[in-house]
Write a structure and sequence with these properties.
Layout: E1 5-10, E2 16-23, E3 29-34, E4 40-45, E5 49-54, H1 59-63, E6 73-78, E7 85-88, H2 92-106, H3 111-130, H4 140-149, H5 156-166, H6 177-186, H7 190-199, E8 205-206, H8 208-217, H9 225-236, H10 240-244, E9 248-249, H11 250-257, E10 283-288, H12 304-312, E11 319-323, E12 331-332, E13 342-343, H13 344-354, E14 363-369, H14 374-387, H15 397-403, E15 419-423, H16 431-434, H17 450-464, H18 474-490, E16 495-497, H19 503-509, E17 514-519, H20 520-529, H21 531-537, E18 542-546, H22 560-563, E19 569-572, H23 579-588, E20 596-598, E21 624-634, E22 650-657, E23 664-667, E24 679-688, E25 695-702, E26 710-718, E27 725-732, E28 738-751
Parallel strand pairs: 10-19, 11-14, 14-15, 15-16, 16-17, 17-18, 18-19
Antiparallel strand pairs: 1-2, 1-7, 2-3, 3-4, 5-6, 6-7, 8-9, 10-20, 11-12, 12-13, 21-24, 21-28, 22-23, 22-25, 25-26, 27-28
Helix pairs in contact: 3-4, 5-6, 8-9, 9-11, 12-13, 13-14, 14-18
Length: 752
């Protein structure tokens, strides 16, 4: 990588230009230049890279799949809304060199390295931005400009003192290590140092026992505190001498507090920590609506990138709308609108390649709407069975399940690496074993006017439409139609779509293998009128909720009210950032990001008395009190598109989402002109009646007394994942991506 590599930068099937790519000596920057002109086109920082995908895992690279083999292709994905960089190396070896090298830089094996990497990148980036004349030195005027860029409004005399203290060469400029000294003085954390000295007898170090006391008394670590203290010293203490003496310096203490172990998110819950052997209906499942759209619902762009992004984000329920296309090729798009189209086969191929990248958990409900013509449904059936599904009549967990006449659906553990189709089905599940039955296809009972009628029309087309063209007549044509319909029907096993005609009707006639789809409006009415019955229903059968057809801008409804009654498949527009997707990401960031979260016990009982409108109906201990001391913030980002020299006035708002009685929010005062190291020291307190369903959202905003506050950053997590004690909250951007090293420092207490 150090010598520079000639690769093709691909923007489309017709735009493929050769460029030289090189990793700079700082191992933090990659630049690329034109082969023809030798002119540098662009550069980017390693800290801007979110991930690297191998093979044809982008829409652009799939379009050139026949020209370039997957082993030579890779995609660099950036944080935020910056477009992907699609590249084709000269050989598979060169591609692997770049892929593995980049991954080692952006995904280091230990968090301390990440912390150090972020700090080093942050310092270098600011130095380069402030060094106006690019002479590798920084005078005091440039330092003053730097402070404005870094969201700091500092007294000039204090800034000059820091500058002079760092200027060891007395040259009137800062360079190299001098700037690092200046940066360290600027970022000194008095609140952390005070906490450190509270437990340190000499104020210079924490002995093994002193650190164990801190872990036990403040961080509420109740087992093996001395062993944990030793692990933390070995992991975070930068001085070899201190490590040998089993002590932790102030720098090591800060590194621990900024690490995964010092995060508000319980590190034990980041991996797969929940029981995965419960029935599917006992889990909340990360779900998307019209997954192929990456913009609005009327004229938006359809792209396989929508599927890739959703799957990478942990989504396990996707939607595919198939319609007749040119040359007998089914197309995926939002029917009766002006959205662009993508070939169905590309979607299927993409799902086959990317479905198990982040999770082995099943895709429990890939909604498949059919094309209308016979040849194209044949193409759809062939593509689905060839790329995604095992023979539906083959041996599998569902055969045992049917034979036992189980009262609940199979488990995620049993269905690992399986893709399940949600759709209409001919006959009963047993008929897939024994032959077709006489039951007519069911249609989802949607209450959304034209959208409901369209759903009914498409359901009819799926099984009953006559082939377009051909010379078959009479019984031969009918037999061919029935055979094809049965082949598609047989693919639907665990998620047969049925109309919802009330909870009593469902209890009498429905099965756990069936699923009903409800609009958000219909769901809200049921929540309001029959909350407890809704919870009971969702304890044994799947329910899917989808956005109103009026949300043409791809906006979202709040998923929380649907989760409050146990709805498993709450479909959201993943392409639209905002509070709703923050809640979704916050809930599903646990359990290995597998897209499944186990519902609390009182929501898995078919005879439960729980009703979200009456918290006292929940079985278990009484309300708990959540106390949050918001202490400080670090290196908060500037507001997008703000004026040059503008500095934010940050405040922190803590929002609680859960049952109606728990919904609340409180906020701190704003700190004027300091986004670099604001200090609040304010305590907020909340009472939670049903903590098992609560999500906590921390939001930082730039206060504006004349207009709406501007968004700065946020972090959302389930209450169950909170780690009490002194914790850092690493903020995310509006679209859910990391914005290192921006964070909040808080103290958390939970009492009954």
């Amino acid at each position: 990588m150090q010598q520079g590599t000639l690769m093709r930068k691909v923007k489309s099937k017709s735009w493929k230009k050769q460029r030289y790519f090189k990793l700079q000596e700082d191992c933090m920057t990659i630049w690329y230049q034109s082969k023809r002109t030798g002119k540098t086109e662009s550069a980017f920082s390693i800290s801007d890279v979110e991930t690297v995908r191998e093979g044809h895992q982008s829409e652009v690279l799939q379009s050139v799949a026949e020209e370039f083999p997957p082993e030579r292709c890779f995609t660099i994905v950036f944080y935020g809304r910056r477009g992907n960089l699609d590249l084709v190396a000269g050989s598979a070896e060169e591609a692997q060199c770049w892929v593995q090298g980049l991954r080692q830089l952006i995904e280091p094996r230990s968090f301390p390295l990440t912390f150090a990497l972020v700090s080093r990148t942050w310092i270098r980036d600011w130095f380069q931005k402030a060094d106006k004349n690019k002479d590798g030195r920084m005078n005091f005027k440039e330092v003053q400009r730097l402070l404005k860029m870094m969201n700091v409004d500092m007294n000039e005399d204090h800034a000059l003192r820091l500058f002079q203290d760092a200027d060891k060469s007395e040259s009137g400029t800062l360079e190299g290590e001098e700037f690092v000294l200046f940066y360290k003085a600027l970022t000194k954390r008095e609140e952390v140092l005070s906490l450190f000295q509270e437990y340190s007898e000499d104020g210079k170090k924490l002995t093994l026992l002193e650190l164990a006391d801190f872990l036990r008394e403040e961080q509420l670590e109740d087992e093996g505190t001395e062993e944990l203290a030793m692990e933390l010293i070995d992991k975070y203490e930068p001085s070899e001498t201190a490590r040998a003496r089993h002590v932790l310096s102030a720098d090591g203490f800060l590194m621990y507090l900024c690490s995964l172990e010092g995060s508000i998110f319980n590190p034990q819950h980041r991996g797969l920590w929940q029981d995965m052997s419960q029935p599917l209906c006992h889990y909340f499942i990360s779900s998307s609506h019209n997954t192929y759209l990456i913009e609005d619902q009327i004229r938006g762009h359809s792209s396989i990138e929508g599927y890739i992004r959703a799957l990478k984000r942990g989504c396990r329920c996707l939607e595919v709308d198939c319609w007749d296309g040119p040359n007998g090729e089914p197309m995926v798009y939002h029917g009766h609108t002006f959205t662009s189209k993508i070939p169905f086969r590309e979607v299927v191929s993409t799902l086959g390649k990317t479905s198990w990248g982040n999770s082995s958990s099943p895709l429990p409900s890939m909604g498949m709407s059919p094309p209308s013509s016979h040849p194209q449904r044949y193409g759809q059936s062939t593509a689905v069975q060839g790329h995604l599904l095992q023979d539906p009549r083959a041996q599998g967990p569902w055969r045992h399940w049917v034979a036992q006449d189980a009262s609940l659906s199979p488990t995620p553990q049993e269905l690992k690496h399986k893709i399940l189709l949600k759709g209409k089905k001919i006959g009963r599940l047993e008929d897939t074993l024994d032959g077709p039955g006489d039951e007519a296809p069911d249609v989802s009972d949607d209450d959304n006017g034209a959208e409901a009628e369209e759903e009914r029309r498409r359901a009819k087309c799926w099984w009953m439409v006559l082939p377009s063209g051909g010379t078959q007549h009479g019984s031969a044509l009918q037999k061919d139609k029935e055979t094809l319909a049965q082949a598609l029907s047989d693919c639907v096993i665990y998620c047969k779509n049925v109309p919802f005609r009330g909870f009593q009707e469902a209890r009498s006639h429905s099965r756990p293998s069936e699923i009903s789809s409800l609009s958000e409006a219909k769901a809200r009415k049921l929540i309001r009128d029959e909350g407890n019955e809704f919870v009971r229903h969702n304890a044994w059968q799947l329910t899917r909720i989808y956005p109103s057809g009026m949300r043409t801008d791809s906006s979202n409804y709040s998923p929380q009210e649907m989760w409050n009654v146990g709805c498993q498949i709450v479909a959201l527009n993943f392409q639209t950032a905002g509070m709703e997707m923050d809640l979704c990401d916050g809930l599903f960031s646990q359990n290995g990001c597998c897209g499944y979260v186990l519902k609390p016990p009182f929501m898995r009982d078919k005879e439960t008395l729980f009703n979200p409108s009456d918290p006292s109906s929940r079985e278990g201990p009484g309300p708990i009190t959540l106390t949050i001391q918001v202490i400080s913030g670090q290196q908060l980002p500037k507001v997008a598109n703000s004026k040059e020299g503008a500095i934010i006035d940050p405040l922190v708002r803590v929002e609680i989402y859960g049952v109606p009685a728990d919904q609340a929010h409180q906020e701190t005062k704003y700190i004027e002109n300091n986004g670099f190291n604001p200090r609040w020291d304010e305590t907020l307190q909340f009472q939670l009646h049903v903590p098992e369903l609560a999500l906590i959202r921390f939001v930082v905003e730039d206060y504006d007394k004349t207009s709406r506050n501007d968004f700065v950053g946020q972090f959302t997590l389930a209450f169950a994942n909170i780690k009490p004690g002194y914790r850092h909250i690493h903020l995310l951007s509006k679209d859910g991506t990391s914005i290192p090293p921006s964070s909040l420092f808080v103290h958390i207490r939970i009492t009954e």
